[in-house]
Amino acid sequence: MILPVLTYGSEVWGFEKYDSLERVQYLACRLFLGVAENAPNVTVLGECGRYPIFFYTAKRCVKYWAKLINMPSHRYPRKCYNMLYLIEESGYRTRKTWVRDVKNLLYMCNLQEFWESQTVCNVNTFVDTFSSNCKHVLFSEWYSEVCTLDKLNWYRNFKNTLHPEKYVFSLKITAHMQMMARFRCSSHYLQVETDRKHGIERCLRFCQLCDLIQIEDEFHFLLVCPYFNELRMKYIPRIYFDPPTIESFLALLTSHSTDIINRLAVFVFHTMKLRKEIYEIV
């Protein structure tokens, strides 16, 4: 509902990324997923399957350019465009212009042939091509950031698309959906996160609920920690944790089975709740 408001008039200004606009989407996704501020922006976009607002503004900007160059030459918008185009191509670049920004968008998406020919035969097909190429560029930037964040050591292995996760819309109980989101987005209170605040090296962030001397990360919590064996056997099929492997961990978190998603969500909800109660008592 707010996207039309955020992108209003973006045909003129939509060629740049504006942090103020992106923050609105980050906040909306966080509120929906119920994750805290310590969840990286790339994870909340990834779980909701959302591209940056820049994608939508750039698309509208380029679509308007395509309409401009197809306007009759006597129209005032086309005359203004021709003037700016001549200034840009003459090399007289005393200041940045809208035309140059559009040119940069096309080159960014590997569509320079349209700029060089100044011809768009089918506007809708052109816009679809731009959208596809732009999404590819933005996805590469998104996944590159996911891979650079240390706290997303597991996330980058089970999340490699910018499509909305099935659990976000299939889980009927909001508390279960939001707990799943916190678990996946590293917005939880496992030792791997809480010890980060105290400057403890990752290799020393051990689980305090068992004697295995292992890092309490998402893998240990979900498939290994013996403290939660009873709940694990109740909700998660044995094939995933006997024995616990990286392959089974990833398979569990990427499952499209509604039954598996529900079971996993219930397990994560109850074990996180139990863990919180234990630490409050201590």
**Care to count the β-strands?**
0
Percentage of residues in helical conformation? 55-70%
Low-confidence stretches: none
Query: From N to C, what is the helix and strand string?
Result: HHHHHHHHHHHHHHHHHH
Question: What is the gist of this entry?
Answer:
The chain is mainly alpha-helical and 282 residues long. Helix content is 63%, strand content 0%. The radius of gyration is 24 Å and the shape is elongated.
What can you see in these coordinates?
The mean pLDDT is 94. It is elongated and about 80 Å long. The protein is built from 18 helices and no strands. Helix 3 (19-33) packs across helix 4 (41-48) and helix 5 runs antiparallel to helix 9. It is 63% helix and 0% strand. With 282 residues, the protein is mainly α. It has helices at 3-6, 10-13, 19-33, 41-48, 53-68, 76-90, 98-108, 112-117, 123-148, 155-158, 166-170, 174-184, 191-194, 218-224, 229-235, 238-241, 246-253, 258-281.
Summarize the SSE layout with pairings.
Layout: H1 3-6, H2 10-13, H3 19-33, H4 41-48, H5 53-68, H6 76-90, H7 98-108, H8 112-117, H9 123-148, H10 155-158, H11 166-170, H12 174-184, H13 191-194, H14 218-224, H15 229-235, H16 238-241, H17 246-253, H18 258-281
Helix pairs in contact: 3-4, 5-9, 12-18, 15-18
